[in-house]
Each structure stands twice: as C-alpha cells, then as structure tokens.
Amino acid sequence: MKKSLLFLLSASVLAGLFVSGCQKDDGLNDQAPLGVTNEEQAMKYYAMNDEFVANEEETFADKSVETFDYGTFGKVDAAVTPLRWGRIISSVTRNVSSTIQLGDTLSISLVEKTIIGTLKIRGLNANKDTVTIEKPFTDTSTRKVIFKRVNRDTRKFWRNWVPVATSLVNGGTVASTPSVKITKLQFVNPNGEEVIVTNPNGYYLRYKWLRLFTGGQKDVPELIAGQELKIVLTLESTSPDTDLVALRYGAGSGQKKRVRLTMLTETKIANGWERVFEISRTAPKFVHFHRGFFHMGVEVMTKATLYDDVAPYAANWWGVPYRVF
Description:
mainly beta
C-alpha cells in the first residue's frame, strides 16, 4: 500500500463507529469447519466468519443509551431534545450467496444481513420533562467478499478458496419516509490527495498481507494510531431539516465515540436536498491501540429520527474496514 494512502486513512481508526479486533482466519485450517461438506459451503462459512464481516455489526451497535457526544445543538424547535441515544440490536439474520466467476479462479460472495433492533432516545420533551422514546427499526446491510482459488484438493476441499478482498458495507433502513442516503464519501489528506467512494459494494479493498490478489481499488488500510485527515460526506435527503451525520470510531471499553460532522453546503435538488458534511483534519486525532481487524463507520439520520417522538427511524450507514498491526 502506498505511503500516501496509509497516511490518508490512518486517522480513521470510522465504524467502528470501531470494535475489538481478533486474529485473522485465512481459511487454511487442518479440519473442515463443522457442517461444511463441499467448496460452496466452505466459502459461505468463511465469508460469514471473515473478521471484517463478523465485526461490522459491532461498529453500528450500542450496548446502551450513550452520551450524545455530538456537541451543542443550541435552541431547537422539536418534540424532543435528545441527550443520549443508542441503536440496540436484538437480532441479526445472515445470508451468503456465492458466484464463481468465469475461469473458476475467483468467486464473489454477497453477504446480506437483516438487523432488527430499537433506537432508544433519552431526552427532554416540550415541557422539559425527561422521557425515554423507543423506535423499533429494521435495517439491512450488504457487502461482498472476493475469494481466490488456491488449490483443487478434493480431500481438503475447504482449503481450496481463500478470502482475499472485501467491499465496503452499505446499510440502512429498509423503508422510510422521509429518506436519507449517502452518495459519496471522500478521504482527503493534508496534501489534497483523495480517496473517493460512490458505490460501497463495488469498492474492493485487498487483503494485502495474503499477497494472493492484485485486483480491487486499494489495500485494506493498515493504520498507525494518532494521525489526522479530513472526511467529506455527501448525502441526499427528502427532509427539509438538516440531517445528522456522525463518525463512529474507537475500540474497546470506554474508547468508542460518535463525533458529529459539520454541514458545509446545502443544495436544493429535484427530490429534496443534497448536503455536504465534513469533519476537519484539525479535529482531535482518531486513536486506538488494539491490534486486529476493525471498521470505521459513517452514519446519517434524518433530524426527525432523534428529535421527533413519533417520526419514523430513517438512516443510512457505510462501514470501512481497516487493520491495526
């Protein structure tokens, strides 16, 4: 990975939105996983248990109703002034489908998840009474994992395919009115170099440490804690109120945080508004110290999701994998 990219993304330790890491399983075990009897089942198993796939849920989940940590909003005209909130996940349903590419050397596994939970908001109502509001939600997320064939061993068939790259994660509300969606994510280093993503499921990051795959756009970022960068996010929203955009980061107990991005511009478009948000390179450094495999996350919600006690939950979020070594 080029040095410039390492510097560019090293601050993003997003998410998670970050989670605890673990040792990477490259699929080369001495015994077949329990219940796996053929190559297709092996790919499904390793796609589901790939560290980046396994830990993405933790990036956007909260263990409890947490301090808002978005800064001061000032006086607002709203049904609720939120003080704390959390996305509490109660269940996740996972499905994997694999498609072997022409030539029988690469396969792409689509990992789909249905995430059910409750958005819990602790805040003040119009009478300044403290209230707790619960909004059930159903989110879906998708990501793709690329496998490379490394062998044709009929006896140890579970070792024939190895995961070598992953796309970004795209998640959000199944259906909502109003709606909000991320359309572009940019990482900008102090020299002006950029990484731009407009299609999270089509932007692949290689597992460089395996040295088995040369496709994809970039390597999975391998990070050094404590560096800085600028993140710019563009969204489209049908809501006339300014949406809420957060960077989630941190790993381990007491280190996970949410940081609000600042809106730069707002433009009226045919179906609503295009808004551009930023967190500056002058913001506090993004730091954590655990080795392993993680996610950073950007999360957008309509204002009414948090500020209106009856408005539906409406959100979109992207997850970006990274490695700390």
